[in-house]
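TL;DR need C-alpha cells for one chain.
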Amino acid sequence: MNIKRALISVWDKTNVARFAKALSERGVKIFATSGTAEHLRSHGINVEDISEVTGLPEMLEGNIKSIHPKIFAAILMSLFEEDNLKLPEGLNVEPFDLVVVNPRPFQLGDGLDEERILKNVDIGGIAMLRAAAKNYKNVVPVCDPEDYDMVVESIDTCGDVELQKRRLLCAKAFLFCQRYDESVFKTLCDLFAIDAAELKRRLE
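>> reply
TL;DR here they are.
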C-alpha cells in the first residue's frame, strides 16, 4: 500500500476519528497536532504527536506547532527527489503520504480588536495544505470530511488514491486556501477601512 504515513490537523472533527481508525486499520501510521491527537486518542486510536517529528513542543499559544523544516520536508521531499540527498545530515525525514487539514474558519464576531483578529489567522495549517496540494502526486491533500470515505474506498480498491482523485483533492485544497485568504482579506479591509474592490483593481 502506498499510503503509509498520515498527518492530521483539523478544527472540524466531523468523522475524523472514524477516518483515522480506518486508516490505522489499514496500516497507516497517524501523526497529529495536539488537539487532534487528544481527540483521536479519546476514541482509542494510536497516534503520535507531531512534536515527536519536530523534537519541539508547541509554543506561542499553539501558533507554532507545524511550522518546522522536518514537517515541510516530509510533505515536499518526494517532489524534489534529485535533492533528497542534499537534506542536512542527520535530519532523518520520512515522507508523509496523506495530509488532512482544515483550520478554524476565519469568521469572527463583532467587536474584536486588531490583535485578537491577527492572532486568529492560521499560518501552519494553510501552509501544510498548500504544500500537500503542490505535491499532490505524492501526498494526498484532504480538507473536507466529505472526502474521507472516498479516500478509504480508493485505498481498499487499489492500495492508493487514484491520480484523478488526487487532482480533484489538489484543486479543492487550493480553493479552500483561496477562500480562507479571501475571508481574512475582507475582514482586514473592514477593520482598516480599506476599499476592497478598489485595492483589487489596483492589483489587476
